[in-house]
Write a structure and sequence with these properties.
476 residues, alpha/beta, seven-stranded mixed beta sheet, 41% helix
């Protein structure tokens, strides 16, 4: 366990600056494609650790690649740092109280994710330097995971093609390595254009774009019965055409997310949704513009790397919660609505194949779940880590950084991402990731097995689900 002790000490050596970095990014709380201060803080921290920077790759203003070393295996860590709109919340406060009403907040813990991966990269670089191990350590600063997909632009441009192993993580409510897939997703804007008219005096002269959008929603609701049950259709109106009921709306826009366990399934369903939209336009005499915003692939877990990461997580151990942590977690758990804890634990139980009793009478997860390899099943969410996994062998873990039952994209998660529980979970993740990287660079045969498995898992290579016309920019 000498390597474990060395890696843990190296992470602890940057622990204070990592915690400060996570809190700084939490305070910035910048949404997708606008993470300027967050990216600058991470870039500055990595540069001070001796990493060389490539700024604004693929035209992404808030992205960068930090690299150290030449030759040897290429080990990559992924960093995210975008916030979510409307989730401002005071740190460590178990009652809903925004820092600024309506402002963004880190309701998915990406401040922890970005800073934790920084600590892992810094520790692995120092380890390789001290041990004289030839290796290349990279940190990919990936903006807009929530909406836009920075990693997809990296993948499309071939940035992961020479990587031997990718290690990623996400803050959550339980400790496990991901052995399931994820849902592929595409985001599409359907804009309808009609003709305005007086809704009482001459409604027959108008063509309602809002009617078209509503008819599309009706059609998609009927479509749900005839697509695979694992698929998901979500939508939100981005433009309702105005607020005056006596004016026939000449414009409307609805934003759809279309998800399925595999990219090919998602693309087939997308075509059917587009047919529904065209039918709605035909029925209402309106015109239709389809704008593909983004697209994420499903996640392909690499068993070889995932089993390595699982062992490293066992060796590092779960976050060492103290009585103060447990008391704080209990206060957050008390804010959950009836049934909310069970609903938020459902995906954990599916992924780990553990009974609910494993987490009963606990407010914090203090153990490591066994690894379950089931790539044919998909966790209910989506991530652009999936696109990375089609390009290079990838392993990803979830680490407890908040109270059991906390839901993603909630004010409770924002509060804990900016406080003591989040920091403790983040440093545990950094140790596990860095240890996996350290063991990988010493084991060429393991990396060869991981590559061969990757070739077999992705025989068709990477086909980018992002439309060629997509650019890294915020879509209003």
């Amino acid at each position: 366990m000498k390597d474990r002790d060395t890696i843990c000490a190296l992470v602890d050596a940057v622990g204070e600056k990592t915690a400060a970095l996570a809190k700084e990014i939490w305070g910035f709380a910048e949404p997708n494609w606008r993470e300027r201060q967050s990216a600058a803080a991470l870039a500055g921290a990595l540069e001070k650790e001796g990493f060389a920077l490539e700024q604004k790759p693929c035209g992404m203003e808030t992205a960068f690649v930090a690299s150290w070393g030449t030759g040897g295996p290429v080990i990559a860590f992924l960093g995210e740092y975008d916030a979510l709109p409307g989730l401002s919340q005071q740190a460590d406060l178990p009652e809903k109280k925004p820092v600024c009403e309506g402002a963004p907040g880190h309701g998915c813990g990406h401040n922890l994710l970005g800073a934790g991966s920084f600590a892992a990269a810094a520790a692995l670089k120092e380890y390789c330097q001290r041990e004289g191990i030839p290796a290349t350590v990279r940190y990919y600063a990936c903006p807009a995971e929530e909406d836009g997909g920075g990693k997809v632009f990296f993948a499309r441009a071939g940035y992961f093609d020479d990587v031997d192993a990718v290690f990623a993580w996400h803050p959550g409510i339980a400790n496990y390595v991901c052995g399931h897939g994820s849902l592929a997703v595409t985001g599409v804007l359907y804009r309808f254009t009609g003709r305005t008219a007086h809704a009482a005096g001459a409604p027959f002269a108008g063509r309602s774009a809002l009617d078209a959008a509503e008819l599309m929603s009706v059609g998609c609701n009927y479509l749900r019965e005839h697509i695979i049950p694992e698929a998901r259709l979500h939508y939100a109106y981005r433009d309702t055409g105005g607020c005056a009921p006596n004016v026939v709306p000449a414009h409307a826009c609805v934003h759809y997310y279309i998800r399925a366990p595999k990219v090919a399934q998602m693309m087939e369903i997308k075509q059917r949704v587009e047919d529904v939209a065209r039918g709605a336009a035909l029925m209402t005499g309106t015109s239709l513009e389809i704008q593909e915003v983004d697209g994420f692939s499903d996640y392909v877990p690499n068993r070889t790397l995932s089993e390595l990461l699982t062992q490293c997580l066992y060796d590092v151990g779960a976050p060492a919660w103290d009585e103060g942590d447990r008391a704080l977690a209990a206060r957050f758990a008390a804010t959950l609505a009836p049934g909310e804890r069970e609903a938020n634990l459902a995906s954990v139980l599916m992924t780990t194949a553990l009974p609910a009793s494993r987490y009963a009478d606990k407010d914090l997860d203090d153990a490591i779940a066994p690894y379950v390899f089931d790539p044919a099943s998909a966790e209910p969410g989506s991530t652009d880590v999936g696109d990375v996994s089609y390009c290079a062998p990838t392993a990803q873990c979830n680490i407890a950084a908040m109270a059991l039952g906390t839901g993603g994209h909630t004010w409770q998660m924002t509060a804990q991402s900016g406080g003591a529980l989040g920091i403790k979970g983040m440093l545990t993740a950094a140790k596990a990731l860095a240890l996996a990287g350290a063991r990988a660079v010493r084991d060429v045969s393991l990396l060869q097995r991981a590559k061969e498995e990757h070739r077999q898992s992705c025989p068709g290579g990477y086909v980018c689900p992002m439309p060629e016309s997509a650019v890294p920019a915020y879509v209003d």
